[in-house]
Amino acid sequence: MRGFSFMVTLGLLLTATTDGMSSKKKRRKGRISVYDRKRECETETCGHLVPLEAKNCVHECVSPDCYRKTYAEPLEDGEINLQLSKNFMACAQRDIKNSMVAKRRSDRQAASGSATSKSAATAHGPASDSSRQKGESRQE
Questions:
Q1: Can you say whether the dihedral through the CA atoms of 71, 39, 34, 37 is positive or negative?
Q2: How far is residue 38's CA from residue 58's CA, in Å, rounded to a whole number?
Q3: Which tens digits make up the pLDDT trace of 78-127?
Q4: Residue 58 buriedness (CB in 10 A; 0-12 / 13-18 / 19+)
Q5: By C-alpha distance, which of 108, 106, 110, 54 is closest to 77?
Q6: At what angle do helices 2-40 and 82-139 cross, to 10 degrees?
Q7: Cα–Cα distance for residue pair 20/18, rounded to 1 Å
Q8: Taking the complete model, does pTM exceed 0.85, yes or no?
């Protein structure tokens, strides 16, 4: 009996920890894409600038809308403002998340639209034939 209760407790514990891990991964996914985009901007778009001077370029590259909202006055070269940086990162994360959601939604609509048009064509074909037959039988 003790062994059974131990196994049940162990199972519940493992389930609770795996659920917590999956939610962390979901949250981390948006952040990773912000950091990936930032790294890409640092190396490609703004790579020709000195890193201390590239902050404005990188921020504008990551999210132009969030850059305009957060940094009304651009930072001076080498200036660091942690509060503005936090605000910008939060805005950029929302921006990227919203664009990912919109992309998924449009992909789903495109997939369901093509599936719906195929099923609608199939559904209208036999239905229209049967309705014609009914109409013909009424006319006779």
A1: positive
A2: 7
A3: 888 999 999 999 999 999 889 889 988 999 999 887 665 555 555 555 54
A4: buried
A5: 54
A6: 100
A7: 5
A8: no
56: which residues sit within 8 A by CB, 6+ positions away?
67, 71, 74, 75
Q: DSSP label at 9?
A: H
> Quick check: 122 and 104 in contact, CB under 8 A?
no
Per-residue pLDDT, 89: 93
Position 89: which residue type? Answer: M
User: Encoding tokens for residue 61?
Assistant: 């590259």
What distance in Å separates the CA atoms of residue 71 and residue 84, rounded to the nearest whole number? 7
Asked whether the beta carbons of 66 and 91 are under 8 A apart, the reply is yes
Q: Is 46 helix (H, G, I), strand (E, B) or coil?
A: coil
What's the half-sphere exposure (Cβ side, CA atoms, 13 Å) at 33? 16
End-to-end CA, the chain:
80
**Structure tokens that stand for 75 in this block:** 């930072």
**Where would I find the H helices in the chain?**
2-40, 55-62, 64-70, 82-139
